[in-house]
Amino acid sequence: MTTSQPSSTQQRSQGTSSRKPSRRTLFSLFLIFLLICYWLFVWRLERIDPADYQLPIALPLPLSQLVVAIRMLFLPRVLLHFLPLLLGFLLAFEMASNLLFYLYDLPDRMEARRFLVRLRSPGRFLGKDVTIKPQNLEKLRRESARLRAGGPGRVNIPVGHVAITEKNGRYFRAIDAGNHILSGFEYVKAILDLRPQQRNCFKVRLRSKEGLEVTTDASVTFRIGSRENQAAPRQPYPFDADNVRKLVYAVKNLPEDHVSSWEGSALSTVVGALRKLVATFSLDDLLPDSQTGAHKTISRQAELRAASKLNDEGIELQRVRIGSFRFPEDVSTQRLEVWSTFWNSRAELARADGEGVAIVETEIAQAAARMEMIQAIVAAVQQAQQQGSGGIESVIVALRLVEALQNLARQSGTDVSLPAEMLPQLQSLQQQLLLSSSLSDDNGNSAPDTVDPIDGTLA
Asked: Which residues of 152-164 are buried (b: 16+ CB within 10 A; e: fewer)?
């Protein structure tokens, strides 16, 4: 709470000014002087003979004349001249009270008359104290003229509260707990609660980095900033007048004739910071029922950002609590579908890579088999040419060729899938060649080399 002590010069000036008569006092004395002059005028106007009102008891001459003069001043025909003044005063008072009644929309004319009396004599007719709180301020404003139109009057501010007053529509002062006297037309603009406040918001809707919906609960504890002011027994909840003034006038118009208050500003600021932070995290980071990792980081960063912004507005943020992140059922299904699609694509890519490798290996094996076949044919032909000549030479070459093909088929069978009838066909072809060679031997040609009966190769 900000307080200031008046200087000695100000105290001397206040003491001097308190000894001087005010303008109201001078005006009252002037009215009394006019009243006395009017009284003497109407007394002289009646031309009363003092001899008709002599006292039956003899008194000293000066005293007898004084008593007779006072008696003549209070005669009915003299006082009758004051009746127009009295009627005029009552008419002016009633017109002024009606003006206040319609101008400030007071509850009734009796309240308007009492308000006018307090305005005319603020030091004597202040009325009873009115205790105001944030909860009953608007209700009392409809019932009490001092809260609807302004002072003078007494108000009582409960402990833990502060009131902001205005004069002529402008900020006047901040009054703390206790009994206070409002000056003329000093209007109580608002009363604020200095105690720590707590606001909760359930099912706050957020969006993750992927745009999926996330819900959580938020709770904030805050109070009006005091700027290091110390608590006192009379005011256990210190405050700063500048912060209070900023909060009272920081009102925003909302749709449907609603206005924002400083109590809702703290929660909305925290929720806004929370939305921005959650939007930077992916769904995998925002695991349900997680109180570590991303959740802890988001809670700490949201509190720091909101505290910095609210401090500029005059609000001290004391604590922020963020519940666990929750996902709707459809969002969970979407998350599973995303994960399934991701891993299926990974599996397809791995399968495609494996098939490509297998095709390459097959091509390499086939090329190697062709090379070995060519080499085997060349070797068989060379061996046949070295072993003999004549008509049997072609048979030997063919048998060598079939033998090379059989060896090649047996060696590459583990690498390349061969048709099931390939080896039997080669064996059949070999037997036909052997038969042909035996027939040529019967005709007088040289016989081929010995054939192994186990595997059909030439000996």
From this structure: bbbbebeebbbbb
